[in-house]
Write a structure and sequence with these properties.
alpha/beta, Peroxisomal Thiolase, Chain A, domain 1, 2 domains, five-stranded mixed beta sheet, 24% strand, binds coenzyme A
């Protein structure tokens, strides 16, 4: 039997209907359309307005979309990994609720928190489980209701983030397609520059933490930008070199949609033409854990069996990395 590789065999996604445009943000904070588009590339984002629904709703909808498209029996799923920074609750894991709701009753499930690199790290874990032969169907979901942790009076964050979810199914492949290589990194220095300060064990919630708005995402955008630009480009270049890839045989860059300029810095270093760089930041903003699978779902019809794809992310923590994967199917 040929070596087992871990291939993505299906994708799905969900974004809520409500749209938050740059013009609407102009009425909420001191900003303007021109600034937002030129600095970030974002035109609008989706917001899950229903206060009774959390991140699990987004994740369930994305997973259900995948299950319906692929027509799989959810009982065959072995493991559900949910990458998120906005779980329904600190305890119990949102993934467990999601797995039960989608009918994956034979699966075990857990949440994975690595900010904007959560889905990428989840891809790594899923691939290792598949390659080892231990499991046959691993569902990785990236979902975030960022609007629940964003301060809509803070112009340095509220223009960036949006809500959404995407999912990918990993299964064994015997033709050498799927996961090929990874470079994953992290650096605790990032904890100072991008975080939610309160609500964890270090600073539990009090009236004071709420009054000081310490339960929202804050960031030093300039510092995050600086680290993101160099680190995401570095690992993408390294993974190309050690797999003898060039701009000629890389078909697609699937990069975290943090900021159009950050993605451009990576694609420039890879010397990739714009047509090979999948982008949807203009429609969704930064959806944190959801950006990679949302890209895969939006551009699924363009991806062809055998295509060489470089994934790249950078996120809070800091966490970052790159994965080289060969696409395994034509849709
Ligand atoms: N609208 C208008 N002006 C704004 C603004 C907004 N929403 N936010 C900041 N500004 C102002 C600043 O106050 C500053 O004004 P000043 O020069 O008078 O001091 C000016 O615009 C430039 O701000 P700066 O922070 O230097 O802008 P920038 O070019 O670095 O862009 C980000 C800001 C946030 C878009 C950019 O730093 C970024 O994308 N960082 C990474 C963020 C990220 O990806 N986070 C998620 C991690 S994956």
């Amino acid at each position: 039997m040929n070596k087992i590789t871990a291939a993505i065999t299906a994708v799905g996604a969900y974004v809520p209907d409500d749209i938050l445009t740059n013009k609407m943000l102009e009425k909420m904070v001191d900003t303007n359309e021109e600034w937002i588009v030129s600095r970030t590339g974002i035109k609008e984002r989706r917001i899950l307005k229903d206060p009774s629904k959390g991140t699990s709703y987004l994740a369930i909808m994305a997973a259900q979309n995948l299950i319906d498209k692929k027509n799989i029996d959810p009982k065959e799923i072995d493991l559900v990994i949910l990458a998120t920074v906005s779980p329904d609750m600190p305890v119990a894991a949102t993934a467990v609720h999601v797995a039960t709701e989608i009918g994956a009753t034979n699966a075990f499930a857990y949440d994975l928190q690595a900010a904007c690199s959560g889905f990428l790290y989840g891809m790594s874990t899923a691939s290792a489980y598949i390659e080892s032969g231990r499991y046959k169907k691993v569902l990785v979901i990236g979902a975030d209701k960022m609007s629940s942790i964003i301060d809509y009076t803070d112009r340095t964050t509220c223009i960036i983030f949006g809500d959404g979810a995407g999912a990918a199914l990993f299964e064994p492949n015997y033709e050498g397609l799927g996961f090929q290589d990874e470079i994953l990194r992290s650096d605790g220095i990032g904890r100072k520059s991008l975080r939610i300060e309160a609500g964890g064990s270090l600073l539990p919630p009090t009236e004071d933490t709420v009054a000081k708005k310490l339960h929202y995402v804050t960031q030093d955008g300039k510092t995050v930008f600086k680290y993101a630009v160099s680190n995401m480009a570095d690992v993408s270049e390294q993974i190309m070199k050690r797999n003898n890839l060039t701009n000629k045989n890389v078909n697609w860059l699937v990069a975290h949609q943090a900021n159009q300029r950050i993605v451009s810095a990576t694609s420039n270093r890879m010397k990739l033409e714009d047509e090979k760089v999948l982008m949807n930041i203009e429609r969704y903003g930064n959806t944190t854990s959801a950006t990679l699978p949302l890209l895969l779902n939006d551009f699924e019809s363009k991806l062809k069996k055998g295509d060489n794809i470089i994934f790249a992310t950078f996120g809070g923590g800091f966490t970052w990395g790159s994965i080289y994967l060969k696409w395994a199917y034509n849709s």
